[in-house]
Amino acid sequence: MRYGTLARGHTAASTRMRLALVMAVMALMVSTIGLPGLSSRAGASTKSITIAAVAPFTGADAALGPKYEAACYAAAQAINAAGGVLGNQVNCKTVDTRGDPADAVPAVRQMYATTSNLALVIGCTSDEASTVVPVFNAHKTVAFCMTGESEFDHIHFPFFFRLVPPDAADSVAMVQIAKNKGYKNIALAFGNDAGSQTFVAPAEAAIKRAHMNVVSNQTLDMTATTFETEAQAIVSAHPDVILMEALGAAGVALLSEIYQLNGNKMIPVIGTSGMIDPTFFTGVTTGPIGVSNFISNFDADNQTVAVGGPAYPLYKKLVLAQSGKVKGVGNFQGLLTANGTVHLYDGINLAALAMVMSHSTVGAKYKADILKIAEGVPGAVRVSSYAQGVRALKAGKKIVYQGVGGHYQFDAYQTAFGPFEDDQYKADGTTVAVGKSLGFCNLILCKAKL
Q1: What pLDDT does residue 22 have?
Q2: Between 20 and 30 A from 420 (CA), which of 59, 179, 407, 435?
């Protein structure tokens, strides 16, 4: 009797085990391929790579991060729609450096500790590049940075790419705009952050070469909420124009106070390319200065954006599609010619195409192909999107990428130089190039220019 009871118990247990095994197999099938009438979880097992936007998202330069984040989402949307990179979907991740070198390093270390399949870094501004680029290089992570620091003019980091000229070139372009407009007496107003201060010495040198005068030089505390002392010093100096970089609320406050102290009259301003920023535009134009006053008296140097080029229509569509997804952007129209968004969008496309060309998402294997695709080789066909490039590569063709920022030619330190233009805001927050091109400027030409 006891034996028979044990036998029946054994049979029941085996049945339960077989049933559990069947259910486990069915669950696995549902989770991987999906079944009719049941929600598929195919996305959970899809392969992916990560692009990290390493930049200030808080702090004085918090306006920079969202520009780069928008570029990542825009490029990733097009890449994923074209099948991803070697079967991998692209994910975007933000890493907040707070615009502080001391905060940036632990943030980057945390990024490496918590991020799987990191394929590319974008962003890294002059605020933190000097401390984080060596970390990227040690990890052999390709990084497209938006830094103008002079140390990258002569130190070679193999995994570092710079899609914008150094601040020395940017400063010369600003002074060129002032010269074209006939200004003689110049006031300087730059934030005390590292990313803004790198403009000051090159601007002073260019002003001297152009036989102009610096009548006031103000360093702005980017944590301050009022700049009455600095504004009064500028107004009292009676400059023809103010050359400045003060992002976000600081720039808005300074110009508003200058306007009021100057009898509700705006002194003309020439900003850096970083001041082509929707947050800055919205802040100034909704204040006492207003739209008409501002757009009539503000210019900014910028690298040429190929608005009429083949890459621009798709780029515009993709960037505007991110509206509401990225916090901290007041007017997405303003991103369409913002250099950070333009050039990092192009950089992501260059890197993704290099991954396809090299059959690898590992930086050490694909980085050499970035230069080949950017600069072209004999017989290369021109492409202006990731999808076009993939089709050409699959057809066995060589490619050269023409992006929203045009063609990218890199020097020995992997810095891209290109022509500058004088941009002015329109009432909707977008910008338009005015006058003739400011010309091409590499480091040697910049030092001899004017």
Answers
A1: 35
A2: 59
The span from the first CA to the last CA of the chain, in angstroms, equals 108
Mutual angle of helices 339-358 and 312-320, in 10-degree steps: 110
Contact between 167 and 148 (Cβ < 8 Å) = yes
Contact 72, 262 (CB under 8 A): no
Evaluate whether 166 touches 148 at the Cβ level (below 8 Å): yes
**Phi first, then psi: what are they for 63, rounded to 5°?**
-70, -20
3-class secondary-structure state, position 5: helix
CA distance 339 to 345: 10
DSSP bridge pairs for 386: none
Q: Based on C-alpha coordinates, what's the Rg of the chain?
A: 26
pLDDT for the residue numbered 373: 97
In tens, the pLDDT along 292-313 reads 999 999 999 988 888 889 999 9
Task: Look up residue 93 and give its two tokens.
Answer: 């991740």
The tens digit of pLDDT for each residue in 339-363 reads 889 999 999 999 999 999 999 999 9
CA distance 191 to 193: 5
Q: Average of pLDDT values for 138-156?
A: 91
pTM of the shown model: 0.81
**Residue labelled with tokens 């140390």:** 151
* Gap between the Cα atoms of 203 and 199, Å rounded: 6
The structure tokens listed for 96 are: 């907040």
- Phi, then psi, of 403 in degrees rounded to 5: -95, -165
* Cα–Cα–Cα angle for 244, 286, 62, rounded to 5 degrees: 55
| CB-based contact 409:375 (threshold 8 Å) | yes
Q: Give the C-alpha separation, 252 to 276, whole Å.
A: 13
Residue type for 101, please? P
